[in-house]
Automatic annotation (TrEMBL):
Molybdopterin oxidoreductase domain boundaries: 39-493
Family designation: Belongs to the prokaryotic molybdopterin-containing oxidoreductase family.
Keywords: Metal-binding, Molybdenum, Oxidoreductase
Disordered: annotated segments: 1-25
Keyword Metal-binding listed: yes
UniProt protein name: Molybdopterin-dependent oxidoreductase
Species the sequence originates in: Larsenimonas suaedae
One Pfam family this sequence matches: Molydop_binding
Span of domain Molybdopterin dinucleotide-binding: 609-732
InterPro entries: Asp_de-COase-like_dom_sf (IPR009010), MoPterin_dinucl-bd_dom (IPR006657), Mopterin_OxRdtase (IPR006656), Prok_Mopterin_Oxidored (IPR050612)
């Protein structure tokens, strides 16, 4: 069955879905961006590159407009030159990013389809969102639970069955506004509210009490960032020591229970992993840990939920693995609403449970280059060409990249240690970027091709984990000379006589109909393309709770008949495979390992604040930074950093003041916001402010001073581990001081329309 929604009068702009109780203001801001001065007006070429400087002045140079014919010819010639001279492996087009919600105008798919006609490219795998999780979970639970949305009970089951949810990282307000592909109906927050009102106890464990929603039956326990694995392990120890662990479950469904118990008892290192031990690491009082353990032991349907943010840290595999160990010791896995959940509340679609409006996207063709780096190893790839990269047990030489091609992402927003990336970015011979705006990546390119915004083109949009599909019409003509990524790629392919091969001879409208046909093939009840277009949206009917899948239930019901796809067929609390890899930074069972940067380490004496850089409430990553709600929440045009009242007072800092955040990697300015919910010792600067260096001002390490409030000049380009190479952004220590008058005068120019 389908439900046909109307998107109201589309000419008035993006309207919320009629049944959406938590509509999202972000699309409104995208309309403001349409006319903004930051739009790229025509194809551009960097002057120094044209004169043959290769990369030397990249990021500090002037651009000159060129015609579309000249720009696309240059791109065609460069692709041909680099692939002929150096081989296609020398072209990096992992092109990670969240540009464009549309299914057809998905920039990355268009680019990859084009490059495969030129003989392929070095790609990337995994995500910044869930890099460590995607590698560790398959080792422990099997491949089928490794997807970002695969490992959580359905909200409908939580609402009915869960009596205690312990949520590490909690529920950051605003995060469920988003999903890859777009969100039509924002359901997660309502489901959580209903569960709490029904009587479920929710205990949020997080450095910020604001991560605990304002619903009944909610408690908050502050914890030092990056120490959750220690708390989770101490909870396991308590259950074992108090005879409350479900030994039968561990024996029947897990391997490695004894090895883990040996570690927890401290038989080898002499350190029992008790509540007192965890107190010293996490800052959570021992009595509180015991209270938590007791509550978990008493619960009839406990759920241990972890946000994705926990695995965007150093040694990020450990809390996920330890959570699976805890849920196993509670014997709560494979039952509705119980066990573990990863990413509930991180995006809207986790926990929706199906049915899902999924269908094939734009076909990308075949890439003969099989090499693909883990996506957050971008800096590593540029820094160490030809050297070995060990990833998830496999060793491969890093390619030597001559040409970087990006469409639909902003590495000078998403990568860590951007001052380092800025230096490494001088190495490729050519950088080509498709962008609607002068992003920090576009300003560091050699050829910049202006792209339409979603409001300037028709598309179909929807998350492949959700029930809805939208037909979004163009609201206005493309700004300036902007073209779609598809039109740009078609024009490039035409220089090599491959336009028809690229377009398959189809118009955009015919492509939309073809993609929609993919949905109808999977969901025959969907109406015709014409009807879909006329109504603006279609939805699959939500499944009855009884028909929703319960993760791991098939295995728990019949472990011999339906074993997991792990080497043992069972839940691996000890992994011989990982032991065999011999990584120094990820052992064979979950464990606590102190990271280089955390509040309990030696570096905290010099840099006593732990910086968290979560998702921005008021925009999607860096998109729309200078407009709408994002602009309205700036302080003097800069991103706001939040400190606890205690830390602000101790430094004599006042709200609204311009402050400087720094460590050994760099420094940035931000406006100060003071909070009474944030724990002392923690600073919060959301990601996404458009990176901008203040001319003539420098951090103490000599790198340029960033003046818009971009946290990634402070974060370390240090992976979660050499097992997963996930993004480790949340393991970062800093200090904060008042900005000097000189520094305070440095305003981010790109925010001035
Ligand atoms: N410190 C820190 N860093 C982080 C994170 C963190 O928690 N802390 N989170 C990480 C995570 S989870 C993620 S997912 C990444 C996100 O990082 P990105 O996905 O790279 O960030 P966006 O700002 O969404 O970048 C999308 C870019 O595409 C452009 N764009 C929009 N539409 C189109 C289009 O149709 N065509 C083209 N060609 N371009 C378009 C936009 O202008 C924008 O510059 O950031 C990561 N970085
Ligand atoms: N509005 C909006 N929503 C978004 C996005 C956006 O850009 N804007 N981006 C989307 C994307 S791409 C992703 S991947 C998801 C990410 O979703 P998440 O990774 O879940 O979100 P974050 O915002 O990074 O962090 C959530 C909370 O985790 C807590 N936290 C951080 N470190 C620790 C820790 O070590 N221990 C504990 N216990 N808690 C910690 C912080 O207090 C923070 O408020 O968000 C999505 N949602
Ligand atoms: Mo993400």
């Amino acid at each position: 069955m389908t439900h046909m929604g109307t998107l109201a009068d589309i000419d008035r702009g993006p309207e919320p879905y009629p049944s959406d109780s938590n509509p999202n203001p972000l699309p409104e801001a995208m309309l403001a961006l349409q006319a903004h001065g930051a739009r790229v007006s025509s194809p551009m070429v960097r002057v120094g590159w044209r004169e043959g400087d290769r990369g030397a002045r990249r990021g500090e140079d002037r651009f000159e407009p060129v015609s579309w014919a000249a720009a696309t010819r240059l791109v065609h010639d460069e692709l041909t030159r680099v692939s002929t001279t150096h081989g296609n492996e020398a072209i990096y087009a992992g092109s990670y990013g969240w540009g464009s919600a549309g299914r057809f105008h998905h920039a990355q798919s268009q680019l990859k389809r084009l490059l495969n006609l030129y003989g392929g490219f070095t790609g990337s795998k995994h995500t910044y969102s869930y890099g460590a999780g995607a590698v560790i979970v398959p080792h422990v639970l099997g491949q089928e639970y490794g997807g970002t949305n695969a490992c959580a009970p359905a909200w409908a089951h939580i609402e009915r069955h869960t009596d205690l949810m312990v949520a590490f990282g909690g529920f950051r307000a605003g995060n469920t506004r988003c999903d890859a592909g777009g969100v039509l109906s924002h359901e997660a927050r309502d489901a959580l509210a209903r569960a709490c009102r029904r009587g479920m106890t929710l205990i949020v464990i997080s450095p910020d009490a604001a991560d605990a929603p304002d619903f009944p039956n909610v408690h908050h326990v502050p914890i030092r960032p990056t120490t959750d694995a220690a708390l989770l392990l101490a909870l396991c120890t308590w259950l074992i020591d108090h005879g409350r662990a479900d030994r039968a479950f561990v024996d029947r469904f897990c391997v490695g229970g004894d090895a883990l118990a040996r570690y927890l008892e401290g038989r080898d290192d002499g350190v029992p992993k008790t509540a007192a031990w965890a107190e010293a690491i996490t800052g959570v009082p021992r009595a509180r840990i015991e209270w938590l353990a007791e509550r978990l032991a008493r619960a009839t349907r406990p759920l241990v939920a972890l946000s994705w943010s926990l695995q965007r840290t150093r040694f990020a595999e450990q809390p996920y693995w330890a959570a699976i160990a805890l849920a196993s010791h509670l014997g709560a896995i494979g039952v509705p609403g119980g066990g573990v959940a990863f990413g509930l509340g991180s995006v809207n679609s986790v926990g929706l449970g199906g049915p899902a409006m999924a269908a094939p996207g734009v076909p990308q063709g075949h890439n003969p280059v099989t090499k693909a780096i883990p996506v957050a190893a971008l800096g590593e790839m540029l820094a160490r060409p030809g050297e070995a990269l060990v990833f998830n047990g496999e060793t491969q030489p890093l390619p030597e990249i001559k040409l970087v091609y990006w469409a639909g992402g902003n590495p000078f927003h998403h990568h860590q240690d951007l001052n380092r990336l800025h230096r490494l970015w001088q190495r490729p011979e050519t950088v080509i970027v498709h962008e609607p705006v002068w992003s920090a990546t576009a300003t560091r390119a050699d050829i910049v091709l202006p792209v339409t915004l979603p409001s300037e083109r028709a598309d179909i949009a929807g998350s492949s984990f959700d029930r809805h599909l939208v037909y979004s019409s163009a609201l206005h003509e493309p700004r300036g000379q902007a073209r779609t990524d598809h039109a740009i790629c078609t024009a490039i392919a035409a220089h090599g006589g491959k336009a028809a091969a690229f377009t398959d001879g189809l118009t955009v409208e015919a492509w939309l109909e073809r993609l929609y046909g993919g949905y109808r093939a999977r969901h025959p009840e969907l109406p015709s393309f014409e009807t879909f277009k006329a109504h603006g949206a279609v939805s699959l009917t939500a499944a009855e709770p009884e028909r929703l899948t319960v993760p791991l239930k098939a295995f728990i019901d019949a472990p011999e008949r339906a074993p997991l796809s792990t080497p043992s067929g069972r839940i691996e609390l000890f992994s011989q495979a990982i032991e065999g890899f011999g990584c120094i930074d990820c052992g064979p069972h979950p464990r606590w390992q102190a990271p280089e940067e955390w509040l309990g380490g030696a570096l905290a004496r010099r840099f006593p604040l732990h910086l968290l850089s979560p998702q921005p409430h008021h925009r999607l990553h860096s998109q729309g930074d200078p407009v709408g709600e994002s602009a309205a929440h700036k302080i003097e045009g800069r991103e706001a950093v939040t400190l606890s009242c205690h830390d602000a007072d101790a430094r004599g800092l006042r709200p609204g003041q311009t402050v400087k955040l720094f460590n050994d990697r760099g420094a940035c300015l931000a406006g100060l916001s003071v909070s009474d919910t944030l724990m002392a010792g923690v600073a919060v600067l959301p990601t996404g402010a458009w990176l901008e260096y203040a001319p003539g001002l420098f951090a103490s390490n000599g790198s340029p001073l960033e003046c818009a409030g971009n946290p990634n000049v402070l974060t370390a380009d240090r992976p979660s581990s050499t097992l997963s190479w996930g993004c480790g952004a949340n393991s970062c220590l800093i200090e904060v001081v008042a900005a000097t008058a000189n520094e305070g005068a440095a305003r981010p120019a790109r925010h001035i329309d």
